[in-house]
Amino acid sequence: MSLPKVLERIDKACRRASRDPQAVRLVAVTKEHPVAEIRERVLRYGRFPLGESRIQEALSKMDELVAEWHFIGPLQRNKARFAVRFELIHSIDSVRLAETVARKAMENGKVQRVLLELNLGREPQKHGFLEEELPEALAQIRAMEGLRVDGLMTVAPYTEDPETVRPIFAQLSRLADLYRLPERSMGMSGDFEVAVEEGATLVRVGRAIFEPDT
Ligand SMILES: *Cc1c(COP(=O)(O)O)cnc(C)c1O
Predict the structure, then answer these.
(1) How is the chain split among helix, strand and coil, in percent rounded to 5?
(2) What confidence tens digit (pLDDT) does each residue in 77-108 have?
(3) Ligand 1 nearest-atom number relative to CA 53
């Protein structure tokens, strides 16, 4: 595919769901791609937020490229001081991590925007809160000075048929509504259209932008 093709598909998915395309932002996932390629395949089309999943790799790109950087991968507490350089952290998956990020944000005199990651597929290998852990965790994290919880994020189980994960996306939207959280970060190359139909406000797409044939 290509970035314009992804945008076109987001647009069509919005139409099908009677949603305003302006309410969906494409986060271009740039992990494993060098800066020159990011310019060529993403930034020539506009100033899209860029998503990275490893701190070390992200930091070197951030030195070279001014952009709205999002952190989307598993975050270790000892890297929190770097994570507060991102505009939005999608992957807060424990109260302890939130505490550490909040502390680093305050040391930097900023309010860090974050999303809480949910493991709605209940996969043991995946990160994120279980649904039943959310109310308590959200209450604790929302009370932390230095953080602003803007929404929820999930990585759906891997599937060949994106229809099978539609209920997961619907559930994330339902929870975001319930807790009055505006952002829903869901949908990747294989399933972003279904995620948009189910209410995604941020889709995280890598392969479909960078691999010509997906
Ligand atoms: C890599 C990654 C993506 C993008 O996945 P693609 O299949 O390349 O679109 C989205 N979210 C997270 C958390 C990722 O690590």
Answers:
(1) 45, 20, 35
(2) 999 999 999 999 999 999 999 999 999 999 99
(3) 15
CA dihedral 77, 82, 85, 87 (to 10 degrees): -40
User: Tokens in use for 179?
Assistant: 């807790």
Distance 54 CA to ligand 1 centre (A): 12
Domains, the chain, in order of start with CATH, read: 3-210 (3.20.20.10)
Contact 146, 112 (CB under 8 A): yes
Whether pLDDT at 212 is above 80: no
**Encoded tokens for 80:** 């929190």
How far is the centre of ligand 1, averaged over its atoms, from the C-alpha of 109 (Å)? 30
Counting from 1 in the atom list of ligand 1, the atom nearest the Cα of 210 is: 8
Nearest CA to ligand 1 atom 6: 206
- What is the per-residue pLDDT across 30-60, written as a single tens digit (0 to 9) for each? 999 999 999 999 999 999 999 999 999 999 9
**Residues 138-146: what's their mean pLDDT?**
98
Instruction: Give CA–CA dist 143/141, Å, rounded.
Output: 5
